[in-house]
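Model it.
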Amino acid sequence: MLKEVIATRYITPLREGGSLPGLVEADDFGTYVMKFTGAGQGRKTLVAEVVCGELARRLGLRVPRLVTVELDPVLGLGEPDQEVQGLLKSSGGTNLGMDFLSGALGFDPLAFEVSPEEAGRIVWFDALVNNVDRSWRNPNLLMWQGELWLIDHGATMIWQHNWPRAQASAARPYDALDHALASFAPDVRAAAAELAPLVTDELLAEVTAEIPDVWLADEPGFESADALRKAYAQPLVARAAVIHERIEGIK
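Modeled.
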């Protein structure tokens, strides 16, 4: 399971993100970028972050370590910004944190080189989870200690927002025309040959087990948290085998 920490101090909002994540300190003396259940799409965004982040890690891609962060809404009482105060007050309980990569630089395709092999693995992974938020306008990639790191996977697996149509949604192709790494000649076929066989029922059961039960509770149409975990896994298993043939915009 993800490590559990308790937020002890809210430092500052990070206004680059549309959901207003914040920088927090925790009782393990770590500093985390925190995403809140009270923001945007709420807990579904956090579920997507966990599934994609933990799957990416197991496939050998670099993502900041994820933790669950327990938040006492009292931390919001002293915040002068009314928007931030409201967000903290509405997000009591279990939220998501990711290691703060101090000194990281935002990825600029004109300033950094990426090999076709690494570009292919990232494009293939984004196609697998249907990441619509890794364009050249908003790469959601960081350069840290000379390596490329993936962040912000909340806008993935859009089929989770309409489970009755999830199968049809997950069968759609992936448009990579505006992908942040499209100009690096991504070798998607080599990535598929390497990574697709790793995306098994067993691996995804391990990944989805990391989702806190509280984020899965009371989902319409599902009798238990484990039934919902299987629903998250099924489209990814099916998509892994064929998605490299359905990526549009990559030569």
